[in-house]
Amino acid sequence: MRSEKEMYQLLLDIANADDRILAVYMNGSRTNVNVPKDIFQDYDVVYVVRETRSFIEDKNWICNFGNILYMQYPDESPNEPGDKENLYGWLMQFDDGNRIDLHVESAVHAEEHLRDDKLCRILLDKEHILPEIPEASDEDYHVKRPTEAQFQACTNEFWWCSNNLAKGLWREEIPYVQDMTNFVVRKQLEKMLAWKVGTKTDFRVSVGKSAKYLYRWLDAEEYQRYLDTYFGGNVEEAWAAVLKMCDLFEDTSAYVAHALGYSCNVREGEAARGFLEHVRKLPKDAQRVF
Asked: How far is CA 254 from CA 20, 96, 173, 266, in A?
């Protein structure tokens, strides 16, 4: 596997040898000092160019980066047509284990959008076309202090959508339950746990995409409680995990409410939790809910 030093040198050598490339910058995990380094980190690289068309039309130029195991052209997706004249990308997995998410970007577009992401780091600027930017920081991704309205909306969404888990589990519709749990209800739990982390860190840290860094800020027991909310395809296992999720949400929302001086609708949670437990005991041949 090519080393980080070798990869950076390759990226710069290609840029220096090509007159169409004016500058190079990077963002993503490799510019974030708060992300632990490992062998799976991508190289998220942008070449600022005079024009994008010649790069798009030449299907072979990306071979300069190494032997590609497989790849994706995200801007060729029929579902998400992009602005190819200003930004175009190649996502490349190489046979040595390295991955580059590479984009070419017009100079005008780069000048307008470079400051959109504070994790940017300029690696090369041949003609001094890029604006000065501060040192890369993950500040944009820090947990944000919620307003009381946002806090109340989160708790309401969690408890209201638990109703869908109840009926889905009674019907034993595990695919539906998995989607509703992980894409709706769990997102509210993640949000609440992130806010708890924020109250403990003065809202100066990031919990990462999908709250993957929660383990850094929660104690081991609480993080295990969170992991215990995941379940497989067994209905009884799912019921147990959903009720554990409710326990954790109740405790966390109470903590956050107290820490921020917000009110907590305990009655709503009790009613929703009671409905869940009632439906769990409901016979399969039931003709009415109550």
From this structure: 57, 49, 31, 9
Indicate whether this model's pTM tops 0.70.
yes
For residue 151, how far is the Cα from the chain centroid?
A: 20
Residues β-bridged to residue 93: 70, 99
> In which element (H, E) is residue 177 found?
helix 174-180
Compute the distance between CA of residue 225 and CA of residue 18 in angstroms, rounded to an integer. Answer: 53
Q: Is the pLDDT of residue 128 over 90?
A: yes
Please give the structure tokens belonging to residue 143. Answer: 């947990």
Last residue of a domain, one of 77, 106, 140: 140
Encode pLDDT of 33-64 as tens digits. 888 899 999 999 999 999 999 999 998 999 99
**148-185: pLDDT as tens digits:** 999 999 999 999 999 999 999 999 999 999 999 999 99
Q: Does 289 map to a domain?
A: no
Q: Which domain holds residue 148?
A: 142-280
Euclidean distance between CA atoms 24 and 45, whole angstroms: 7
Size of the chain in residues: 290
pLDDT tens, residue by residue, 69-103: 999 999 988 887 778 999 999 999 999 999 999 99
- With tokens 């003609």, the residue in question is 127
- Cα 114–Cα 31–Cα 7 angle in degrees, nearest 5: 105
Residue at a domain's end among 102, 123, 140: 140
CA distance 190 to 206: 12
- Specify whether the CB–CB gap between 229 and 186 falls below 8 A: yes
| Residue 23: strand pairing partners | 48, 125
